[in-house]
């Protein structure tokens, strides 16, 4: 089997939410696979960028060391006007070229359902679901016209189950899962592949509260056949598979990367 099957040489990729956590490793994985040999797009949430400028620079340096280019197109996933400008800005910067969109930006708010405010609910749904549709719609129009493209969404185990104290997150990720399938149904005929990665429990700041809770941490690890939390780099291979021509006949799939949690 040729390694070219997984090559992203010459591809232009856009990824949201990639200064830290799994998004950071995803951005580096795209560059390692060849995306950005000419140009590489680095989309980021404005609020994260402000809080993590050092991470921003670090990711730039790592991508540059791979001989790739890394460019920032600011995106605030909770601001509709920012979302509307994002894909046109990307296309404007790169002469109308966009091959891969990774919708990774996401937030979680942990509260009992009875304590959720409308503001908290709406902010999670907006960031985790509404922005995914809006960015996919804008990118999809371009990819349909060019008759090729890859859209990869970040789903979750919560696309399958409700979790505890994360009603808005579970609802948003359930929506991401079915949205992925709905867009795949419409766009597969145009050689636009829409799929998702559903990470299990990954050791990032998003799971800090769980890993620091002795009871929850014990219960979670007891349920994972691999007996460990995933690492951000565990998402690299699945992402490159879905972003490359190796997955050209994969449509509407939620690729679970969970150490065996769902099988248990």
Give an overview in words.
This is 2-deoxy-D-gluconate 3-dehydrogenase. Keywords: NADP, Oxidoreductase. With 264 residues, this protein is of the alpha/beta class. It has one domain (3-257): NAD(P)-binding Rossmann-like Domain (Rossmann fold). It is 44% helix and 13% strand. β5, α6 (167-187) and β6 form a beta-alpha-beta unit.
Produce a short descriptive summary.
This protein is of the alpha/beta class.
Task: Label this structure with key terms.
two-stranded parallel ribbon; 264 residues; alpha/beta; 44% helix; single chain; five-stranded parallel beta sheet; Rossmann fold
Note the overall shape.
Answer: globular
CATH domain class:
Alpha Beta
How many structural domains? 1
Q: What would you give as the CATH superfamily?
A: NAD(P)-binding Rossmann-like Domain
Uncertain segments of ≥5 residues (pLDDT<50)?
39-56
Q: Please, what is the average pLDDT?
A: 88
How many helices does DSSP assign? 9
Based on CA atoms alone, the radius of gyration comes out at 18 Å
Structural class estimated from helices and strands:
alpha/beta
Q: CATH fold name, please?
A: Rossmann fold
Name the assembly state.
single chain
Can you give the helix content as a percent range?
40-55%
**Count the strands?**
7
Distance between the termini: 32 Å
User: Per DSSP, what share of the residues sits in E-state strands of 2 or more residues?
Assistant: 5-15%
Sheet with the most strands? 5 strands, parallel
Q: CATH architecture, please?
A: 3-Layer(aba) Sandwich
Instruction: Tell me the strand order in the biggest sheet.
Output: 1-4-5-6-7
- The helix/strand series, from N terminus to C terminus, equals EHEHHEHEHEHEHHHE
Pfam family, one: adh_short_C2
Family: Belongs to the short-chain dehydrogenases/reductases (SDR) family.
GO molecular function, one term: oxidoreductase activity, acting on the CH-OH group of donors, NAD or NADP as acceptor
Organism: Parasitella parasitica
């Amino acid at each position: 089997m040729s390694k070219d099957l997984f090559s992203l040489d010459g591809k232009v990729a856009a990824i949201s939410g990639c200064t830290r956590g799994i998004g950071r490793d995803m951005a580096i994985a795209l560059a390692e696979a060849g995306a950005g040999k000419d140009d590489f797009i680095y989309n980021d949430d404005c609020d994260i960028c402000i809080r993590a400028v050092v991470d921003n620079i670090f990711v730039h340096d790592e991508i540059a060391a791979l001989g790739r280019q890394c460019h920032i197109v600011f995106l605030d996933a909770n601001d509709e006007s920012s979302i509307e400008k994002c894909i046109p800005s990307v296309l404007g910067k790169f002469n109308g070229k966009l091959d891969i969109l990774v919708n990774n930006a996401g937030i979680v708010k942990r509260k009992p359902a009875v304590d959720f405010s409308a503001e908290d609910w709406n902010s999670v749904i907006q960031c985790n679901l509404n922005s995914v549709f809006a960015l996919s719609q804008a990118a999809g129009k371009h990819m349909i016209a060019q008759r090729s493209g890859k859209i990869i969404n970040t789903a979750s185990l919560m696309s399958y189950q409700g979790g505890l104290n994360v009603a808005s997150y579970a609802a948003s990720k359930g929506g991401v899962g079915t949205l992925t399938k709905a867009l795949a149904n419409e766009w597969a005929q145009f050689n636009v592949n829409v799929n998702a990665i559903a990470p299990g429990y990954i050791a990032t700041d998003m799971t800090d509260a769980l890993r620091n809770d002795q009871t929850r941490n014990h219960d979670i690890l007891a349920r994972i056949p691999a007996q460990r939390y995933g690492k951000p780099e565990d998402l690299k291979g699945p992402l490159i598979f879905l972003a490359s021509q190796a997955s050209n006949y994969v449509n509407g799939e939620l690729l679970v990367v969970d150490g065996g949690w769902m099988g248990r």
